[in-house]
Design brief:
Layout (H helix, E strand, L loop, with lengths): L1 H32 L1 H41 L4 H10 L1 H15 L2 H7 L5 H15 L9 H14 L3 H8 L9 H14 L1
Length: 192
């Protein structure tokens, strides 16, 4: 019986080996059929992640050079080489530097140029400060309530009290500047 068991065991072993060999042939056939697609997909994945890593390093290098140029400009605002490098590497930071420099030097020409910038923040705050420097009505998305206080003050100086009150009424009660608007309204009433 032991020989019969050995024969059966050998048969089972051959059958499992046969199945494994058949699976290997199927896998080889599948690989040959889709070899280009498989290699292309693997290559595309490698290129994608490799490209992202390289682009990240390039962007990091660009920002590092822009920051170095900005730090140099803070030390020496007249450094034209650093100014050109900052403009090339990071135009948004370049405009913010120009804004800071214009505010430090009360340069209305630079503020006028910056007020037409494509950068919404820079154009808004430059336009606001330009209007304040010129003593005209200011309009600002970011400094809305402060601009309203300024505009009301200008109207009060012109004697347009009711218009000034209308402008001050536009300041929301939840605003931190609401109390200042109340004081200005009170000042107008007392000043009559």
């Amino acid at each position: 019986m032991s020989i019969q068991d050995n024969i059966n065991e050998a048969k089972e072993q051959f059958e499992s080996d046969e199945k494994m060999l058949a699976s290997a042939f199927k896998l080889e056939k599948f690989y040959k059929k889709y070899k280009v697609l498989i290699l292309g997909t693997v290559g595309a994945i490698i290129l994608f992640f490799g490209g992202n890593a390289v682009m990240g390093l390039i962007e990091e290098n660009r920002l590092s050079k822009a920051n170095d140029a900005y730090m140099e400009l803070l030390k020496n605002p007249k450094n034209t080489e650093a100014l050109a490098q900052l403009q090339d590497k990071n135009p948004a930071l370049f405009e913010l530097f120009l804004y800071k420099d214009a505010m430090d030097n009360n340069n209305t020409e630079v503020l006028k140029t910056l007020s037409s910038s494509k950068n919404e923040l820079v154009s808004d705050i430059a336009g606001y400060h330009l209007a304040i420097m010129k003593g005209t009505e200011a309009d600002s998305k970011f400094y809305r309530e402060v601009a309203l206080l300024n505009n009301a003050n200008l109207l009060m100086r012109e004697g347009k009290i009711s218009e000034a009150n209308d402008v001050l009424s536009q300041i929301d009660e939840k605003s931190p500047l609401y109390n200042i608007s109340k004081i200005m309204k009170h000042y107008v009433i007392k000043g009559k």
